[in-house]
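Supplementary Data S3. Sequence and structure tokens for construct A.
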Amino acid sequence: MALPKKTSLAILTFGVMTAGLGYAPGPPWLRLRETVLTQVLHFGPEAAPPAPVAAPSPASAAPESRRVLARTPLEQRDARQILDPAGIMSHFYESLARTERKEPRAVTQVLHYGDSPVTADSITADARAILQQRFGDAGHGFVLMAKPWAWYGHRGVGLRGSGWRIAAATQSRAKDGFHGLGGVSFEGGVGASSTISLPDNRHTGMEVQFLQQPGGGAFHLEGNAGPIGDVSTDGETEAPGFASFGLPSGTGRVTLSVTAGTVRLFGWSFEKKGPGVIYHSLGLNGAQVQAVLWYFNAGQWTIELRHMHPDLVVINYGTNESVFPEYIERQYPGELRKLIERVKTALPESSVLVMSPMDRGERDSSGDIVTMPILPRIVDIQRKVAVDEGCAFFDTFDAMGGAGTMARWYESQPRMVSADFTHPLPGGAALVGRLLDDALMRGYARFRAGTIGVQ
């Protein structure tokens, strides 16, 4: 079916975000406990993140997840730097060095997983632009086949689609868990189509990611500069499929049309001749650690991660978990650890960076905007688990100013955060993107100086 109508979101800058299933252990696993209604300015989630589901038994939660974690004194660390005692960022920095030396085909790939701000390419667009300006533009990267949410978008990219049945891992989930690299499945028959307009006409190659399956249909790719190719998705077994093509010179727009049967697609990716950086923005509305851990088919996701050959994977969740303090106390550390282990098992040579959520505000009984009490705890848990698992950690929360930042952002002129005190406006997103880039470049400078891993 066609995309859900979101006329009011397309016309108005005000919307309504509903957040809300409270944590409740035990069957049936999902129980309504509370509904939080928040105004949204600029853009807002289509639906609340689902409540975290209870583990099958308390024994499955890691013992440390029931311990209280004390705050690390700020004076003991510089929040503007990436914490990397194990030196796991070396692989990423080595790739950047090859790219900077302009070695043949030296392309540095980044996969940035995140929640609703990343669905609009907030933060990631600015990080991409800065890195590509310094190291070279190797292409825009991965984009979903159509807009699962009215505010989904990538900077400089036009996207429209029709005729798709859409299943996002955080909402109407595919029963088999096959959600692709970006967490959304698109199924359509003859007549279904998508058109993407690229930021420029200098992309030289593209790839479509799909599900190969018995009896799978076919699709055709047509560019503004000429035909690109045809693909059959028929195969002996269900498995991730990848179809790559060179693009005719001057291609700035591509249309995919289903020509036979039914196909199931996950997204398309666009690249240029290296050297340079490709920064893939993989935002999923309502995303949490648990959504990836429970609702991404592990085998399929592993194949897709390995296919991308990323030099760096950024795990940027925590905002949606902040409305479930009981879950944070009981299950969150163990589940974050499992997600990290899954990524590291799939990509043992890649750098992995846990990036904390931004500040998130709410109004207290006096009407003042204050930081949600559980948020600093989430940041501390992420830091501890990341270090324990040999990953790097970037403290977005402290780097942007710590507790009370969203109050200052909301009261600033121009405003830097929406009326929900959660979603950054362009100025806020650009600031966080620059903070992330600055932290990466500080680490890169230390790598080149031979001090990586020294904290």
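Construct B, processed identically:
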Amino acid sequence: MTKGTNRNMNADFYPRWLRAWHWSNAVLFAALLATGASMHFAEPGAPQVDFRTARFVHNTAGILLTLGYLIFLVRNTLSGNGRYYLPEGDDLGAGILRQVRYYLVGIFRGDPHPYHHIPGRKFNPMQKLTYLGLMYLVFPGIVVTGWLMFFPEKMPERIDGLPGAGAVSLAHAIIGYALALFLVVHIYLGTTGSTPLALFREMISGAHAETPGENTPAA
């Protein structure tokens, strides 16, 4: 510990497999967003990726993203990391309200974070609810609709009175926009650590800097 520092490093806060999945997932998703938008808004003379190239990159990234997601599901279950996504105590009541109030008001006043990251609690109540819905509801949606578009002959002819291909394409686009919005918010919240880059460094090194008093949530 250097002089004047009251922080200890938990070197295995984010396991190597989780960090590898996180960053590869981010790169693949960025590629999917760029190529998907390029194909969706394709028109002559527009500054975009060539359609054939965009389709190849999009399909390749989609396949790799699916494989990565399957690896995530298996490792998240076998390693026990999945327990960090499960709400507990007052997470779905006062806890999430406390976190929302912090994000809307407290963070701009310099208030202490209501929940500290510790080995037994890596996510605050809002993160738990968001990641649980994202990884087990939204993400499967983008994967399933993507594969249906890859194999259009497997699509149902009609879905709730709409043409199957049109309904699946619309659902895929809507989920993609929702994930793009999440990505923007996720990056912003990543800058709200002790320094703008602190949380990004943690997700690269896997080490979390602990401060005195981080063993319990703040009141």
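The chain has a mean pLDDT of 85. The CA atoms of residues 116 and 172 lie 36 Å apart.
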